[in-house]
Amino acid sequence: MTLVAGVDSSTQSCKVVVVDAESGAVVREGRAGHPDGTAVHPDFWWDALREALAGAGGLADVAAVSIGGQQHGMVLLDAEGRVIREALLWNDTRSAEAAAQLVSEVGAEQYAARTGVVPVASFTATKLRWVRDHEPHHVERVAAVCLPHDWLTWRLRGYGPADAVDAPLGPDLEQLTTDRSDASGTAYFSTATGEYDLELFERALGRPGRVAGSLTEDVRVVLPHVLGPADTAGAVYGTDTYVAAGAGDNAAAALGLGAEPGDVVVSIGTSGTVFAVSEHPVADAGGTVAGFADAGGASLPLVATLNAARVLDATARLLGVDHDELARLALDAEPGAGGLVLQPYFEGERTPNLPDATATLFGMTLASTTRERLARAAIEGMLCALADGLDAVTRLGVPVERLSLIGGAARSRAVAGIAATVFGLPVTVPEPGQYVARGAALQAAWALSGTRPHWDLATAIEVPADPQPIVREQYAARRA
């Protein structure tokens, strides 16, 4: 049996799966936690990766490994390969004003045309501008900028800070690599051309950049070399284990789910995401849809919302029930919840961009205000917000035929059934699993063999399309 490993280095933790390269069957797993916060020193990720790899039995018998990582995080390195400051993560919003400045200077349409995205506080370029404006003493020290999965891939291959005992190959910044999917979340990379937009990078940091390996003895800031889906970055130091290109977390999840053109994935975690595989790049000047690249050579248009599973958490607390009872109550109410509509902006909202909004319950009457209808309105409202995101994707010409529902809330027996009424599409809920790590493992197998594997994925729930237009109509009327 040939083994490959996949890593999911997320905001909260590092997870490793070791799988059979032929079937994708999980052989063993490991996990380690990350510290809380929106700014974290990358050394914590490195320590967690090594702990999780050890928990998964190590890499001695593993032929290839790949790392899927949280997108957008800004890692700044000096000429000695040392981290200059804590990495600002995707959920660090201090750069919101910087994002607005960049959009004002370049224009939303130009940004969308050049990179496929319009900057918001999540994206790397905005964090670079924030450092330029608020920590200018760091800017001249910056010798390289990379992303979390780029840095971990570099470290795994034996590179790192000068004189570090766990970095025997030293601070060779020319060895930094990334992939299209993660690079596309920086706001200085073109999904359409597959190349960095160096003018936009310089506009963000205030210093010119170049691609790793393109020149030597150059004072410009190094950006990781962009690898293709089946490329290898090298090998784990001291072993024959290949290190594949890696990917951003959503792109790795799409690989792990086997998503292809026509498929859309709705992920319901603390926040929500809607992403589809598209054969063609997309650009949304309105900024609702991020025109990311995927990890398989196509595009991955994506919409994110701030309010997803925690909408259900709040409603369950209010009703004094657990999630199973919340599901039972919701299924006892009719589609449309008797006119009760929850606009679920409990923590403001990113899509639409309403950071100061609050949640609102509409349509309360003596008849509609029941426990059952409130439970149903909570699920319908959460899903309608995500369905609005899917509408934004399809308006860009992306075809959607099937929907996969993942994340903690997807396990609710009510969520899948109500999703079929809200989205009007067939809904599949795969068996719970580590989809990001699985996708990274699939990429490792791809790099090893040169052929993209197709692994079977077990299904937990299947629901046929059951469109109930009243649900979206009520929600749209209240939103307006």
Would you give an account of this structure?
The chain is α/β, with parallel strands linked by helices. The protein is 33% helix and 23% strand. The protein is built from 15 helices and 26 strands. Strands 1, 2, 3, 5, 15, 16 and 17 form a seven-stranded mixed β-sheet that branches. A seven-stranded mixed β-sheet has the order 20-21-19-18-24-25-26, sandwiched between helices. Strand 24 (400-406), helix 13 and strand 25 (427-430) form a beta-alpha-beta unit. Helix 10 runs antiparallel to helix 12. The chain is globular and about 75 Å long. It starts with a strand and ends with a helix. The relative contact order is 0.13. The mean pLDDT is 95.
